Amino acid sequence: MKWIVGILFNAAIFLGLAGFFEGVFISSVTAAVLASVVLSIVNVVVRPLLIIFTLPITLITLGFFLLVINTFSIMITDWLMGDAFNVDGFWLSFLIAIILSLMNTLFQQMVYDRRKS
Question: Which residue ranges does UniProt annotate as crossing the membrane (predicted)?
């Protein structure tokens, strides 16, 4: 259930970003949900490998390089989705990675931390 809520939340963020930035294109709500699922799979399969291979630079940058890894995850999702989901360039992908990270952190703190108390 937690995974589905996260997928739908990310899809909503993607749709909002597509309305806010000219360089982000999503063909439909279904494409946004599918892009969110693909990003989730990329984060489970590819991201851990990238983290292992880039561990020295991640340690040197005190973890900030993880944003670059998140950027590559978004770029891989863009590539896998074809024309249904498109983000123009590295820097816009980087900005989206930052926004997604912040929004997901806030969402998790608001929703899941309140259930514990």
Answer: 12-42, 49-69, 89-107
Residue 86, beta-bridge partner list: 25
- What does the alpha-carbon distance between residue 81 and residue 44 come to, in Å, rounded to a whole number? 17
Other residues' Cβ atoms within 10 Å of the Cβ of residue 108: 13
Identify whether the C-beta of residue 93 lies closer than 8 Å to the C-beta of residue 78: yes
Domain count for the chain, please give it: 1
Measured in degrees and rounded to the nearest 5, phi and psi for residue 87 equal -125, 125
**Domain of residue 68, residue span:** 2-116
What tokens does 111 get?
A: 């929703």
Give me the pLDDT at residue 115, please.
60
Q: What are phi and psi of 23, to 5 degrees?
A: -80, 0
